[in-house]
Model the fold of this input.
Amino acid sequence: MMNTPQNITILGATGTIGRQTLDVMARHPEKFRAFALTANSSVGELLALCLQFDPQYAVLLDADAAQILEQKLSAAGSATQVLHGISSLEFVSAHPAVDTVMAAIVGAAGLKPAIAAAQAGKRILLANKETLVMSGSLFMLAVEQGGATLLPIDSEHNAIFQVMPPVKSRNLHESGIKRILLTASGGPFRDTDADALSLVTPQQALKHPNWVMGPKITIDSATLMNKGLEVIEAHWLFNATPDQIEVVVHPQSVIHSMVEYIDGSVLAQMGNPDMRTPIAYALGYPDRLESGVNTLDLFKIGHFDFQKPDTGKFPCLRLAFEALRAGGTAPAVLNAANEVAVAAFLKQEIGFMDIARMIESALSDARIVQADTLDIVIDADMHAREAAVQWVMKH
Ligand SMILES: NC(=O)c1ccc[n+]([C@@H]2O[C@H](COP(=O)([O-])OP(=O)(O)OC[C@H]3O[C@@H](n4cnc5c(N)ncnc54)[C@H](OP(=O)(O)O)[C@@H]3O)[C@@H](O)[C@H]2O)c1
Done:
């Protein structure tokens, strides 16, 4: 008997993760079908993907871009329906025909569609870590109440998921786990002198030594904010306290993270730094799928190194731990200020070390409250963005 293919919505289909998801899906056409592909405003890129993968829906956030896409698709004889706006992103995330949603929009913009998928009980492949950073408790509640299945795509969290047994209780220690060792490459400036960091340019920061990623996460990797966001993500996904999460700099990016058990065992997941491994793992779960990733050549790698992160040189990691400990809306403020700061750095309006200064200032100025509703989170996000924009104008 033939199984029907899973219907997949890819939020952020034109991005790095979106394209790699389509790459893995295309290797298994009998298992996966693109139901909806979405983007912000990249008409040409989304058009090409629609012509290749023939989804039922294409969604662009931008209304004008959607109109152009619709004209081009109909001229090409395509039956793909074009929609626009945030409610359409939610529509294709919660549609009854959808089995799986790949949440790969970058930044806070991914929050609402991810929540819609959770409430509709979908299988969610979560790349958009900002959703958990902003609204961890609300999102996890929506997953539980909606009966959704959450599979982490971030390579570190996917690694932890792979080496963690089904947890018996929400208390990690009762499940035999002592701590999580979250690995970090250290980014392109791992060995750069602290004094030289203020002179770093966007071009230098956009060159990651091991991973090919979108611009925002690449800058986050250079400041170590990406690791900070991942610490908060690990807290929500695995119910780990801040003290149970240790960041370990591992420049080779082959060990994607580790779990230490109370008996002294440390289990690691390894592989080449290629996001198609965690994507294939989550698409196929619980089965394994061929992903196109090269065989790991341990002889070529030769050795593994480990270092403690330098939070003096990279204050963003410290700020993320502080926001996690503060709780409530603090992580949403951290995330919003970081998004504005990264965009300003890319436009050369502020320096590299100003990113952390801006976030620290936003966190100390914000009124941190309980993150009880989505409106409260969105309000905190909006105020932090306004404060961050003011900071850029003043400096
Ligand atoms: N890349 C990686 O290796 C990696 C690894 C782990 C986790 N992640 C996480 O995965 C997410 C995506 O990262 P990425 O590197 O794939 O980003 P990316 O290459 O910049 O792609 C972002 C995608 O989101 C869409 N988008 C941007 N702003 C939007 C908005 N306001 N509304 C709707 N769609 C919007 C973009 O559409 P347009 O093309 O129209 O702009 C694009 O499709 C991020 O949360 C990142 O932290 C990425």
